[in-house]
């Protein structure tokens, strides 16, 4: 009895291994199927199932989503696979990284339907349309409303404010070398003070007790006093986060408050725009084009905010109530041209590290 | 049944087996006897197929075993320290062989019960082997080795670690068992008492070679070399020149039996042949030590320092034993004087089982040796 | 147990330690005898040519596995980096290694790994001792619990650890200690993370060492410590070395803990490689750093192999249940209590904080976050359907464990019989993935496995394959010492009884190493369950595992996300603890069944 059982177990293992390998090898053929369209993206991509189902039903394509790490890793993977891509469409390269895939020729041109509804300033490649803007997000300093109310202090509004003595030891930001909001905040200072002026600003900021955390998670969840209604036990009432963080704080509350517990310092923002593009060498170009159209469709654009906590690029897309009630509209965020970022990024980060960390 | 043809095994510089020829007949019990390092365990490993042979052949039932792995040789081996499988109970150990040979579970269970009865452990099947006493482990190891009905059963120091009483009892049991089952047995031991009690024939090994082979009685009575004699516990050995009825030795002139070869060589005087007399008579000696051996005959070994020549051992009864420091005279009994062959010129008679003729009237005078195993006397072996 | 039984056990053990007879080149059973090769190796040497063939056949599968899924991808990405633009960028090597920033990273990597390993051994060896030698209530549960940190994703570990050592954390409240801004946080987090490695690898062997050996030494006049140092320590040395090696490799290549706790000031080589590859796409620099790390790890493995070669010997093992007893007297109780206290503070408190945070809902304590996890996945809150993530995790981990056991088991069987340099090299080779950056392997997959029939880039199998790469060294490390400690003559006894080598392995070695195998399987499974690094760098079909889901939720602002992340982490903990507890059960039932 036992002997048979053992033999059976051994056989099962062998068969299982073979089956696994067979499935694995066979599985990769799926993407060649013209009825499947593959979206390569980063880990933060999200979409409501019903919205995606809708697209599949209407277009007749089955959508497969491949995720490859954080935004930087995903972009670099696409660059490495240039010409022999894993899928048909890539979504998730933002303006701080855009030059690299553009220069390496990762994307093929396609003018997506609905581009007319997108403000022109967001279109990074207006002649060739190799990339299509999909969403924007603003990185801003968030403040803990209760803390400032208790201290009877006005929250800061601008980057300059943060260097003032009354906000000493209150700010926590992120490592620009490893964290996307950290880098965005550095770029905001570059945009504000110019290529030769931001270094002085950071010296002042450091002298004013700005702390640098390793990651957004640590800064926001553990160091910031305003997150999770103060349960985080953090002692910093100012943190570099997103303009969409206040609505996120309220989300899921049974008894929604009048006001989000956190606010946004509107003069400290840097705008990130995320782009999608048709991958050169895609097996299903038509499907990819349909998918790009879908990313700009009103349905998807209106689904975006609550799924990825970003703003739609379509001007006619309605924001959900959570955003309109608790979020704040940033009118004049800072930006830096992708080309300039690509040229100086490494040097800026190096300089920043020596100024803010060491 | 088993034949070794010029089997040689060496480990680097050292030769463990040096062109060994050996034959074991069906239903025979052969004991390989030798001190540590003589190559006897290697011999078993070679037969079992656990040790590769550098030259020569092993034949089982006439078939060359070269290249046959251990599990296809159909031999049994009982390891010196049993090597019971610790994770299996007694029945699991004993039933291992039958099951590897494809025996069904029910049949194997029957066989296990049968063997446990045979070795005197009825109903012990479910016990953990780690909970057994040494003697019980021995029996389980034996049952396990016998269970697949090997054509040849090999035992490596089968009784080595047991206390004396148990060992003596088991020797008798084993011998009876093997006889009853008709098993062909090849055993190795360093204890000549054990070997003599167990074996139909013994093979004495010395540094990878066979020093002597024969029945226990033959080997006991006529050690082929000084090495064999000393290994059997005889120390009264001296160079001698035989001329007619006497031998010229360090102890003076000794009377010798008629059939002793003439000329130079070595002779052994068994302790029983060293007869104690009044100080004036014969070779004058001082009693250096006396050791009581016990046993039915109340034997005492007396160590003597002669005026001339190397020390002598004498055996006598307790009643006759002199005090330490006493002066005695020694005379020699020619019937207890044995000529020893040249150590390496010894007849390699392993595969010629015909016994060499024993000297007339020597049998009855054989006495227990002084060694540890002396309590099992050769007389017990028919 | 009763005295009689213990005595018999000892007699058997003593017998086994006797040289079988000095005619073979058999060494005395003295562990530190001059140039004493262990008995099994002597037997293997005698066996000669046939064994080599078997060994090579056994090695074929693991060798192919490693060549295909490790060697080739890593070589491909390194090649791409150093051969950029169609010519060799050899100048980059000196340039990168001459950079003071890089040198600082190297130095930090090295010293923090050494310090973490030393600290882990210092704190965890007493734990291994207590687990091996004492029985106390809740032992099984505790053994499972201390292993849980090991499988938690580093984001969660970092957060949990801050709850212990950060502002307002347990240490802050109790002792006024705040470590979150110092390097101590990293070191202690590494202890928290790797405690189980030491307790399990060393403890499983320790619990089977015959305590009578130490007692024999004491009777011979050795003091308690001397007896331990001269008898037990040498016997444990291989497993302590193995544990130290694994801890060192883990901390040397530490990524998540450093990212979460290190802040911008501290970076390991692994973090730097990640930055160069995933953020900057500076492949030449990444290639140089990858090679540097490989060389360092290879050197470490070589030293380890060299140090170990003469240390291993056939051990006298006894069933673990004979060696553990209830503490007796105030001295032993104090020892046990102290060790368990340290263990609790270090490993259990941070876990409890996670649970507390998962329960601390918007309306006070309750299961609100857990209930939220069960809500419909399309309701806007969700990034990932939690139930789906649990299923994915278990499925991936099961496949990864199967692969790791097959590959690792074959490799361990091949390596059992020690022989030439080739085999030793193979041994070290199989350890390399532990010391290689996950992002290197992940990107290597992408570059190398991109042509049919091996276009596995977008196949789900990449995930368990990557996890198995990390699991295999565990399987080998856990099984090898025990396999080698199995007396070769038990195998011979089986052979003489008619068992073929395969059957002998299955019926003799396998039952004896079952424990080790289960421990190995448990490690492989839990490592796969918690594995985050390697899989996250591979673009793969969207089947998020628990750690991935936790990370995604933690990456969102808001109490709901954070609470659900903690709730998911708690679920992950419970799943792991459940698996580990089940394994503990199997471990003890094993003897009864056989």
UniProtKB/TrEMBL annotation, chain A:
InterPro entries: ThiB-like
Keywords: Signal
Domain of life the protein comes from: Bacteria
Signal peptide: 1-24
Regions that span the bilayer: none
Coiled coil: none
Biological process annotations from GO: thiamine transport
GO molecular function terms noted in the UniProt entry: thiamine binding; thiamine pyrophosphate binding
Keyword Signal: yes
GO CC terms in record: outer membrane-bounded periplasmic space
Protein name: Thiamine transport system substrate-binding protein
Species in which this protein is naturally found: Streptomyces qinglanensis
TrEMBL record, chain B:
Domain of life: Bacteria
Xref: InterPro entries: AAA+_ATPase (IPR003593), ABC_SmlMolc_Importer (IPR050093), ABC_transporter-like_ATP-bd (IPR003439), ABC_transporter-like_CS (IPR017871), Mo/tungstate-bd_C_term_dom (IPR008995), P-loop_NTPase (IPR027417), Transp-assoc_OB_typ2 (IPR013611)
GO cellular component: ATP-binding cassette (ABC) transporter complex
E.C. number(s) listed in UniProt: 7.6.2.9
Alphabetized UniProt keyword annotations: ATP-binding, Nucleotide-binding, Transport
Record Gene3D superfamilies: P-loop containing nucleotide triphosphate hydrolases
Stretches the record annotates as Disordered: 339-382
GO molecular function: ABC-type quaternary ammonium compound transporting activity; ATP binding; ATP hydrolysis activity
EC class (word): translocase
PROSITE patterns in alphabetical order: ABC_TRANSPORTER_1, ABC_TRANSPORTER_2
Annotated signal sequence range: none
Pfam families, alphabetized: ABC_tran (PF00005), TOBE_2 (PF08402)
Domain ABC transporter: 2-232
Protein name: ABC-type quaternary amine transporter
Organism (species): Streptomyces qinglanensis
UniProtKB/TrEMBL annotation, chain C:
Domain of life: Bacteria
Transmembrane regions: 56-79, 110-132, 144-164, 184-203, 239-263, 283-307, 333-355, 394-416, 428-449, 461-480, 516-540, 560-583
UniProt biased composition (Pro residues): 22-31
Species assigned in the record: Streptomyces qinglanensis
GO BP: any one term: transmembrane transport
Protein name: Thiamine transport system permease protein
UniProt feature, compositional bias: Low complexity: 32-43
Entries under CDD domains matching the protein: TM_PBP2
């Amino acid at each position: 009895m036992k002997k048979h059982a053992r033999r059976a177990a051994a056989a099962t293992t062998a068969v299982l291994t073979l089956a696994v390998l067979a499935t694995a090898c066979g599985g990769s053929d799926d993407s060649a199927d013209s009825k499947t369209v593959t979206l390569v993206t980063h880990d933060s991509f999200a979409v409501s199932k019903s919205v995606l189902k809708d697209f599949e039903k209407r277009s007749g394509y089955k959508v497969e989503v491949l995720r490859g790490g954080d935004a930087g890793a995903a972009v670099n993977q696409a660059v490495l696979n240039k010409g022999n891509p894993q899928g048909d469409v890539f979504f998730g390269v933002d303006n701080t990284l855009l030059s690299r895939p553009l220069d390496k020729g990762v994307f093929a041109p396609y003018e997506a339907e609905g581009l007319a509804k997108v403000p022109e300033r967001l279109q990074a490649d207006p002649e060739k349309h190799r990339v299509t803007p999909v969403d924007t997000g603003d990185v801003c300093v968030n403040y803990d409303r209760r803390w400032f109310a208790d201290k009877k202090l006005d929250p800061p509004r601008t980057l300059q404010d943060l260097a003032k003595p009354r906000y000493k030891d209150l700010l926590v930001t992120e490592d620009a070398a490893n964290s996307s909001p950290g880098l965005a905040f550095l770029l905001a200072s570059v945009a504000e003070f110019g290529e030769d002026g931001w270094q002085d600003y950071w010296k002042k900021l450091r002298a004013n007790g700005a702390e640098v955390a390793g990651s957004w998670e640590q800064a926001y969840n553990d160091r910031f006093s305003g997150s999770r209604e103060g349960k985080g036990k953090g002692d910093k009432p100012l943190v570099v986060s997103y303009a969409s963080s206040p609505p996120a704080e309220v989300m899921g509350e049974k008894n929604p408050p009048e006001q989000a517990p956190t606010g946004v310092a509107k003069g400290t923002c840097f705008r990130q725009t995320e782009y999608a593009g048709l991958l050169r060498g895609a097996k299903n170009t038509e499907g990819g084009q349909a998918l790009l159209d879908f990313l700009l469709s009103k349905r998807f654009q209106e689904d975006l905010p609550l799924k990825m906590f970003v703003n739609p690029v379509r001007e006619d897309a309605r924001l959900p109530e959570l955003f309109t009630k608790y979020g704040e509209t940033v009118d004049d965020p800072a930006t830096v041209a992708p080309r300039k970022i690509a040229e100086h990024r490494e040097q800026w980060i190096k300089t920043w590290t020596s100024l803010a960390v060491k | 049944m088993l034949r070794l043809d010029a089997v040689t095994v060496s480990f680097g510089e050292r030769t463990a087996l040096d062109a060994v020829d050996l034959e074991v007949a069906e239903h025979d019990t052969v004991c390989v006897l030798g001190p540590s390092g003589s190559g006897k365990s290697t011999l078993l490993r070679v037969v079992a197929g656990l040790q590769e042979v550098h030259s020569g052949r092993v034949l089982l039932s006439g078939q060359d075993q070269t290249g046959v792995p251990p599990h296809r040789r159909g031999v049994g081996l009982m390891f010196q320290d049993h090597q019971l499988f610790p994770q299996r109970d007694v029945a699991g150990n004993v039933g291992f062989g039958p099951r590897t040979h494809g025996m069904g579970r029910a049949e194997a269970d029957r066989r296990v019960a049968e063997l446990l009865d045979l070795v005197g452990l009825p109903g012990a099947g479910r016990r953990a082997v780690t909970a057994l006493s040494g003697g019980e482990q021995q029996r389980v190891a034996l049952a396990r080795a016998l269970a697949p009905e090997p054509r040849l059963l090999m035992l490596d120091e089968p009784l080595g670690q047991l206390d004396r009483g148990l060992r003596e009892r088991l020797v008798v049991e084993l011998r009876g068992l093997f006889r009853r089952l008709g098993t062909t047995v090849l055993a190795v031991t360093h204890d000549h008492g054990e070997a003599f009690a167990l074996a139909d024939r013994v093979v004495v090994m010395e540094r990878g070679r066979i020093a002597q082979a024969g029945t226990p009685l033959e080997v006991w009575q006529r050690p082929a070399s000084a090495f064999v004699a000393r290994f059997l516990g005889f120390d009264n050995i001296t160079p001698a020149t035989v001329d007619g009825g006497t031998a010229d030795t360090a102890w003076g002139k000794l009377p010798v039996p008629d059939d002793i070869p003439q000329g130079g060589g070595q002779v052994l005087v068994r302790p029983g042949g060293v007869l104690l007399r009044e100080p004036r008579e014969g070779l004058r000696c001082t009693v250096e030590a006396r050791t009581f051996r016990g046993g039915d005959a109340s034997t005492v070994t007396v160590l003597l320092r002669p005026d001339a020549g190397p020390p002598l051992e004498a055996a006598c009864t307790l009643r006759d034993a002199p005090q330490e420091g006493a002066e005695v005279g020694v005379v020699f009994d020619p019937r207890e004087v044995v000529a020893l062959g040249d150590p390496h010129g010894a007849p390699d008679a392993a595969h010629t089982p015909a016994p060499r003729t024993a000297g007339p009237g020597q049998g009855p005078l054989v006495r227990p040796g002084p060694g540890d195993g002396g309590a099992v006397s050769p007389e017990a072996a028919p | 147990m009763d005295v009689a039984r213990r005595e018999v056990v000892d007699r058997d053990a003593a017998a086994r330690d006797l040289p079988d007879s000095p005619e073979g080149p058999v060494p005395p059973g003295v562990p530190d005898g001059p140039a004493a090769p262990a008995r099994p190796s002597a037997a293997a040497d005698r066996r000669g040519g046939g064994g080599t063939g078997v060994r090579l056949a056994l090695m074929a599968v693991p060798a192919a596995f490693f060549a295909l899924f490790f060697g080739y991808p890593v070589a491909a990405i390194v090649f791409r980096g150093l051969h950029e633009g169609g010519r060799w960028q050899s100048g980059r090597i000196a340039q990168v290694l001459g950079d003071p920033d890089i040198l600082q990273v190297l130095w930090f990597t090295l010293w923090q790994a050494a310090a973490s390993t030393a600290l882990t051994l210092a704190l965890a060896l007493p734990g291994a001792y207590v687990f091996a030698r004492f029985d106390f209530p809740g032992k099984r549960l505790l053994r499972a619990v201390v292993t849980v940190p090991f499988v938690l994703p580093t984001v969660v570990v970092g957060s949990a650890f801050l709850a212990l050592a950060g502002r307002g954390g347990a240490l802050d409240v109790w002792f006024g200690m705040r470590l979150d801004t110092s390097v101590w946080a990293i070191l202690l987090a590494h202890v928290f993370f790797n405690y189980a490695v030491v307790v399990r690898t060393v403890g499983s062997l320790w619990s089977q060492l015959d305590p009578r050996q130490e007692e024999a030494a004491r009777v011979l006049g050795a003091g308690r410590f001397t007896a331990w140092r001269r008898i037990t320590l040498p016997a444990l040395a291989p497993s302590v070395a193995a544990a130290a090696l694994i801890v060192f490799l883990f901390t040397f290549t530490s990524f998540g803990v450093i990212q979460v706790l290190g802040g911008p000031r501290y970076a390991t080589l692994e973090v730097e490689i990640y930055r160069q590859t995933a953020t900057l796409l500076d492949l030449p620099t990444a290639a140089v750093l990858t090679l540097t790390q490989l060389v360092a790890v290879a050197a470490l493995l070589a030293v380890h192999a060299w140090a170990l070669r003469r240390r291993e010997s056939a051990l006298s093992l006894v069933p673990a249940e004979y060696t553990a007893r209830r503490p007796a007297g105030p001295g032993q109780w104090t020892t046990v209590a102290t060790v368990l206290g340290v263990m609790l503070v270090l490993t259990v408190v941070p876990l409890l904080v996670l649970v507390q945070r998962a329960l601390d809902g918007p309306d006070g304590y309750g299961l609100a976050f857990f209930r939220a996890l069960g809500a419909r996945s399309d309701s806007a809150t969700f990034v990932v359907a939690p139930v789906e993530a649990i299923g994915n995790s278990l499925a991936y981990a099961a496949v990864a464990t199967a692969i790791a056991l097959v590959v690792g088991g074959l490799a361990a069987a091949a390596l059992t019989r020690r022989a030439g340099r080739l085999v030793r090299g193979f041994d070290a080779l199989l350890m390399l993935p532990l010391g290689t950056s996950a992002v290197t392997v992940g990107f290597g997959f992408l570059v190398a496995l991109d042509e049919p029939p091996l276009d596995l880039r977008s196949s789900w199998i990449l995930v368990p394959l990557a996890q198995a790469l990390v699991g295999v060294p565990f399987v080998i490390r856990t099984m090898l010492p025990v396999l080698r400690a199995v007396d070769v003559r038990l195998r011979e006894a089986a052979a003489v009884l008619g068992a073929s080598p395969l059957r002998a392995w299955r019926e003799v070695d396998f039952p004896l190493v079952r424990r080790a195998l289960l421990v190995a399987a448990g490690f492989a499974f839990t490592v796969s369950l918690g594995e985050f690094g390697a899989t996250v760098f591979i673009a793969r079909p969207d089947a998020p595992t628990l750690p991935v889901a936790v990370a995604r939720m933690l990456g969102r602002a808001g109490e709901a996300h954070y609470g659900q992340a903690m709730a998911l982490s708690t679920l992950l903990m419970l799943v792991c603890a459940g698996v580990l507890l089940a394994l503990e059960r199997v471990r003890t039932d094993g003897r009864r069944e056989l």
